[in-house]
Specification:
The complex is a heterodimer. Chain A is built from 16 helices and no strands. Chain A is mainly α. In chain A, α7 crosses α10, α13 crosses α14 and α14 runs antiparallel to α15. The longest helix of chain B is centred in the middle third of the chain and has 37 residues. By secondary structure, chain B is mostly helical. The chains are: A mainly alpha, B mainly alpha.
Chain lengths: 375, 367
């Protein structure tokens, strides 16, 4: 176990070096003089010389890389070359927490959506509901995130009134349908059993949720972000909700498919049959017996996703004008602020690498076969 | 690192296991008896209701949208029933429709110059045209016009050209370069494998969109440069895929025998291994094209890909964004086309993988 961890960490070293070299060499890809790209064709020669010095273009490549790497290790990413001139590390320190918060929220929301639906559709594999949810998940995966962000904006912000009405009507219709079916089947079976009463409770809950959503659907801001320190937790969550939901729709769909397919396999195993034969209730079998052995792929995918969300936030931060790493990167690319581009690419890539390695290690920890190296 | 398969899944190419089959559920006998009626009613009624919604017959935004939704739903039910009558109950309607959609989009992109489209690129030639016209399928501007009176359908068709050129071009480059490197790594193993693996790992260490942004930040956003950027994105996917597939065949009898008979490396690589490794790579292509089309659209939404006046799906959506509360068609017309194209590519890609990739078939067979 220890040697395996050491081996994985050792393998990280050349990759991290290559990643930093790649981020650094971005500047070399710029055709012509990067200083001219920053300032435009009309710049005075003095200003161009100044920016060239700031970018270090007057010195040899290897020396610059060494110095840059030395700075990075000590947390010094240089200064931005486009006004307002700031320390890049200060900019990152202000923006990284925002991106991390949105990524984490998106993660939680997608798991909250995927696990219940995954359990239910695996339980009813092949039923119309399973087909419908599977189709919806497939559609969600095919949806570019900037598009789903705009769809959410269109419905939840621009047409909030109509959506509330729609939620109310659909929710009550669903509740009524479930209730009517329960009453009918109770009459057919000649008595009220537990499942019928549960269905009635479910109908009541659905109706309640629909009414609650219709009455108290929160107003989400079209753009901007409120920090916890600036406006409290509630305001903060309200401004982070739509960006996180946008990302969660796609990732949740991915999780749902992974979990459902694993669960369908697990539910056919002998120990599940044994639990059923012993008379365990369906919820008990699903949650207590089947969920844990089915969640290995989910853990892998979820970990990888957390890393990928760091890239995905570029889009939602731009759509919702959230001041995170992604929008900083896009702005810096547009103004050709190369030190900021290099630093944010490097930071995001390093986080991605670290999270993926952590997932690898935790996967090995979760699965005894890998832990013993007996694969 | 665990195994080649989860690693492949680490990219956003394909994280989900094979498809939820939409054919397997046997329809209740009652439904099946009425196939003919449903097909006829769906096709005729759906077409009529959709037509009502898309022309001026209903002129309030929400009822109009609802009419179109109902019409399209009826139409789909009709097509589904008709296909089932024709090809049997197990037909995959979504797959057929996806193929049809891709053919339409591809043909439109190819024939963009000869199609009778209204002006979509040069605002100085649309001064006399009405601006912000709403979509009306049987008019001069089927998908409406934008603020500068440019035709949206024309923009979408020329955008399809950019998306498909970029996506297919990048996959072709990725397939050739990545496939070749993966073949070498899987066949020679040892030091070659280590070097190729390290570079691949370093490329994969960047979150995909960030890598693309980084590449584009340094280069001018042209079709060529965006294609190169996307190709760099797809190369590591193909390296891993080709390597994993090569490993599966490298120890097989026919390879060992070819070597025992004195076959040279080049012959074994290209005559024995390549024909076996290629089908899964190609079948993966559809899904990779889908990912790259999304990446290009995201890039041009951010304003970092091909620029106006050349329309792309992404920059059309970005241009419509600031007024789409009052003029939703500016975003939804290109948006729906983008979504349907990506959906169709994913759907066809899944079918192709079940057909050509033994690993996908095995995973699917276990269901």
């Amino acid at each position: 176990m220890g040697t395996m961890i050491a081996g994985k960490l050792l393998r990280l070293v050349p990759i991290v070096l290559l990643v930093s070299l790649g981020s650094f060499l971005l500047l070399e890809l710029v055709p012509g003089d990067p200083a001219l790209a920053v300032l435009g064709e009309t710049a005075t020669p003095e200003r161009v010389a100044e920016v060239r010095a700031e970018l270090g273009l007057d010195r040899p490549l290897a020396e610059r890389y060494g110095e840059w790497l030395g700075g990075v290790v000590t947390g010094d990413f240089g200064r931005s070359v486009v006004p307002p001139v700031q320390d890049v590390s200060t900019m990152i320190a202000a923006r990284l927490p925002v991106t991390l918060e949105i990524a984490l929220l998106a993660m939680l929301m997608s798991l909250a959506m995927a696990v219940p639906f995954g359990l239910w559709t695996a339980h009813r594999a092949g039923a119309p509901l399973d087909t419908a949810v599977g189709g919806a998940a497939f559609a969600a995966i095919s949806m570019p995130s900037f598009l789903s962000a705009l769809v959410l904006v269109f419905f939840l912000i621009f047409n909030r009134g109509s959506v509330r009405l729609l939620v109310l009507v659909l929710g009550l219709a669903l509740a009524a349908g479930v209730a009517v079916r329960a009453v009918r089947s109770a009459r057919r079976d000649g008595g009220w059993e537990r499942s019928h009463r549960l269905a009635l409770v479910g109908a009541a809950v659905a109706a309640g949720v629909a009414v609650l959503l219709a009455v108290a659907l929160p107003v989400f801001p079209r753009q901007g972000f409120v920090r916890i320190t600036g406006g409290g937790l509630i305001e903060n969550l309200r401004s982070a909700f739509l960006p996180a939901l946008t990302l969660a729709l796609v990732e949740g769909a991915v999780f749902l498919r992974v979990l459902r397919n694993d669960l369908v396999g697990t539910l056919q195993e002998d120990f599940v049959l044994a639990a059923r034969a012993k008379g365990m209730s369906t919820p008990h079998v699903l949650v207590r017996d089947a969920l844990r052995p089915s969640s290995f792929s989910l853990v892998t995918v979820a970990g990888v996703t957390l890393g990928r969300l760091l890239g995905g936030t570029v889009i939602v931060e731009t759509v919702f004008r959230v001041p995170g790493m992604g929008s900083m990167l896009v702005d810096a690319i547009q103004t050709k602020d190369f030190p900021v581009v290099q630093a944010s690419v490097l930071v995001l890539a390093l986080l991605f690498v670290l999270i993926n390695t952590a997932v690898d290690l935790s996967y090995a920890y979760l699965d005894p076969r890998i832990r013993r190296g007996g694969r | 690192m665990v195994d080649a398969e989860p690693l492949l899944d680490a990219r956003d190419v394909e994280v989900a296991p094979p498809p939820a089959p939409d054919e397997a559920t046997p329809a209740p006998a009652g439904w099946r008896r009425h196939r003919r009626a449903i097909a006829a009613a769906g096709l005729v009624g759906g077409a009529a209701v959709t037509w009502m919604g898309t022309t001026g017959a209903v002129d309030l935004p929400w009822p109009r949208a609802a009419t179109v939704v109902v019409g399209v739903a009826l139409l789909l039910a009709g097509i589904d029933s008709a296909l089932k009558l024709w090809r049997g109950e197990r037909v995959q309607t979504a797959l057929w429709l996806s193929v049809a959609w891709l053919v339409i989009v591809g043909a439109a992109a190819l024939l963009a110059d000869v199609l009778p489209l209204a002006e979509a690129q040069d605002p100085s030639r649309t001064l006399t045209e009405p601006s912000l016209v709403r979509p009306d399928l049987f008019s001069e501007h089927p998908l409406g016009t934008d603020r500068q009176s440019l035709d949206i359908l024309g923009g979408v068709v020329y955008g399809a050209r950019v998306s498909l050129t970029v996506g297919l071009g990048a996959v072709a480059i990725g397939l050739v370069v990545g496939g070749f490197l993966g073949l070498l790594a899987g066949y020679y193993r040892g030091r070659v494998d280590a070097v190729i693996g390290l570079v691949t790992d370093a490329l994969i260490a960047f979150p995909p969109l960030i890598l693309l942004l980084a590449l584009v930040s340094a280069l001018e956003p042209s079709v060529r440069n965006v294609t190169i950027g996307l190709a760099v994105l797809s190369i590591p996917i193909y390296v891993r895929l080709a390597r994993a597939n090569t490993l599966r065949y490298a120890e097989r009898d026919f390879v060992v025998m070819a070597r025992a008979l004195g076959g040279r490396d080049r012959r074994i690589l290209f005559r024995e291994l390549l024909p076996n490794v290629l089908p899964p790579l190609v079948s993966y292509g559809f899904v990779v094209v889908a990912v790259l089309v999304v990446a290009e659209a995201s890039l041009s939404y951010l304003g970092l890909s091909v620029q106006r006046p050349n329309p792309t799906w992404g920059n059309l959506i970005a241009a419509g964004e600031d007024s789409f509360d009052r003029h939703p068609h500016l975003v939804f017309a290109p948006g729906i086309v983008l979504f349907l194209t990506v959906f169709a590519l994913n759907r066809v890609g899944e079918a192709a993988r079940v057909l050509w990739d033994p690993r996908a078939r095995r995973a699917d067979g276990g269901r």
